Here is the input.
Amino acid sequence: MTRPITAGVDGTEESLAGLAWAAREAVRRGRPLRVVHAWRFQTHEGIDAGDAATQGQRVRDAMGESVRRITERHPDLAVTTDVLEGDAVQTLAGAAADAEMLVLGSRGHGRIIGFLVGSVGQQVIVDAKRPVVFVRSGDRASGEVAGREIVVGQQGDPEDSAAALDFAFETAAARGATVRAVRAWTLPPMFVYSPEVLRQVDEAGGLEQYEQKALAAALAPFRERHPHVRVVEHVEMGSAGQVLLSVAGTAQLMVVGRRARRTAVGTRIGSVAHGVLHHADCPVAVVPPA
Here is the structure.
């Protein structure tokens, strides 16, 4: 079965930007597009909002108009639509399960503030078993021109970032883009407090060479699988979030892995993904582990 690229829409400007992005990506990858609206019947005191059938029809009519614009722009694209009644998080996470990726819109306010990812979006990231891409309101295809890179974060052992690297290389291959693979590193605390250890490190040529080897090892299978994709290896000392954001200006898409964890006060998606989602000014893909 060919997995579709699925876009979650709700009629807002940001979700329509996500739908447009999803349609372009579906065309590039030769995949169908599925458009999903998660809807729940609601009543309002003092307002005649109509019964469930009426509300559902309004949703379908609005969604049909949005899809019509997409099919006019991409007449050969296979598009299906679903209005699914139920909780937004559960519905969208369920829709992602059978998709190549789930694309959602996210309100953006410029380079400083970046994205505003609401509670639904954050929970979908945690629950989705497939990559989730967030597209800012006002995103334009002009950001996908040649010269702008697919930036992907790599950390830990090769298997730790394998899913994110796979997504980045597949996307770059479909677009004819360059992959910039970023590995950030910091000195272990024991090195900071031991001048003797630091001296030995300096004599050995520093630690960055080992980080470069680790990045090269993680990239090797993907370079072999995609020999035509140009790769830039970027190793830099600093926090992963800061280093990734420092190169966001060259990116048409930022790809990060997901490290979600549940706590007593709610679910957390990891500091790197959280920082990139809130401050990058390009679309961001959050990829769960394989």
User: Anything to note?
Assistant: The chain has eleven helices and 13 strands. Residues 109-116 have pLDDT under 50 and may be disordered. The two ends are 19 Å apart (CA to CA). Residues 223 and 229 are 7 Å apart (CA to CA).
